[in-house]
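My hope is that you will study the record closing this message with an eye to the fold:
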Amino acid sequence: MVSRLTGPFILILLLVTMAGPAMATNDLTVEPDRTRLYEGEVLTLSVKGSTKIDINLGNLFDFDLSSLPKPDIEKVEDDFEILARNQQYSIRTVNNEMVGEITWTYQLAPKKTGELTIPPLSFRDSRSTPVTIEVISGTPPDQETEAQRDSFIELAADKDEVYVQEQLVLTIKLFFTGNLIRGELSEPEHPNAIVESLGKQNEYTRYRDGVRYRVVERRYALFPQREGQLSLQPIRFEGQARNEQGQLKFLRDSANLFDITVKGVPAEFSGDTWLPARTLELTQSGLPRNQNLTAGQNLTRSLTMRTEGLPAESLPPFPEQTPDSIRAYPEKPERTTTPGTEGLTSTLTQTTALVPVQPGKLTLPEIRIPWWDTESDSEKVAVIPPHTLVVEGIPGQIDSVPSNPEDASETDTRTNNDPVSGETDGESGAGFWPLATLAALVGWLITLAAWWYSRRRTSAGKVVASQGDNREKVLFRDLCEAAQAGSPKTTDLLVRWMSQRHPERTFQSVTDVNRFLDDTELAAEIEQLQQRLFGTPGESATSEPWQGERLVAALIRVRGTASESAPGDQLPPLYPQGLNTSR
């Protein structure tokens, strides 16, 4: 008689029938759930074995079925990836002997296509027979309903060819059935492309061939950096889900995007910086509407460049051209990138304080930014037209002194020696001495106050000078760190440091700094950095790491030379020479 017993109390019930040798083995069988599958599918392999078990009062509480040996499943790893392992045990009595039956379940993913063989597996003294599995390339056809896929990936690109650095929008859709317990969906990557995520993923449901799928959709913006063919790595998915019956299923799939042709910069493009975008526009604000202002009046001008289809880091800085009759104090530019369903939208904003210093007419020059319209496949130019301002001089103060000094002298003489008044100098001098004493006292108090104020001003001047030295050191340290890292902040920090170190001069741009220092080595290093950051693709070796040691060394040398020949501590004039502040 054969009876099967399962459950946690089976060991106690079997004490009355325990007997036989310690362990013995029987046959080992290998059963795949199918012998033909596609490369993205998962194979379930069941391995069954049995062994005799000896349980007595001495080992009743120490016996562990999980400690039994296992088959050498590692032999399949040449052709299959083992995704999961599971095992089940049951015990039965056969002719008063306890026999343990063990079933090992493995989830296998094929590593290649063709006819793959699961080699003979060993369990103690038993060996299984080999099994041949046929793996077909591609994915199952949609019309094949008898073997409906549990998960699959769809890829789509908005273009089949792009220019170098042009935006390519990639859409990844993962379809799956059941309740997803875990899952890993890879992201697109390529050594010669910049990849930006376009926001959070979307989740929704879709029906395909009458089957309801849950869908996870992700979008990415890709910017190829080299011309040629762009071939992305396969997008892969691995996960686990439970079906309506509560069964656990392993999901696995992969998909490849077709090769994208990447074209070089067109020969007819006339700009210095290659800008392929859907749109690019320039705007400005902050200038007076009536075109009139007064010398010394402060203006805040904001220039904004807005693009669709480019990251903000790729936008070039605005040209730093202003007439000599106006001083410009630019702030740090602001760059923002906003992801959307159609790609990236970026803005570059440059705010500059403008102070006219000479009366008359002045014209802010035209700003032209050539760019390439990827929609019409042609060059376009964004323009801010020239702007003319009329600067009026500073009105003079009203003069209260008589226009003719001689008349004033004669008036004073007649007042002091008028015979008609009936008073002589001696008679009028009766009240002179009290007034003179009071005037002397007031003068002494004024002198004392002036002395105290000069002492305080001298002390404050020393504190300000000390603070200026510390500010200069901090700016120079930040400048060297930015130069070492090849940061776009380097040029802005250079202008700010020179303005702090030489307050008697005005530095509006790097060009002004180079003109003042007249240092060919430093100018060459700065030009190399700017070419690397903002140059046309192909003209700068952006793939090579930046070596900032030479630029830092040139800055340290220039700072040391300037310290030896630094002028005295003098405050710059409030207005430049030639600007009349009174009439």
User: Anything to note?
Assistant: DSSP finds eight helices and 32 strands in the chain. The mean pLDDT is 77. Helices lie at 10-13, 405-416, 425-428, 432-485, 490-501, 510-517, 520-534, 549-564.
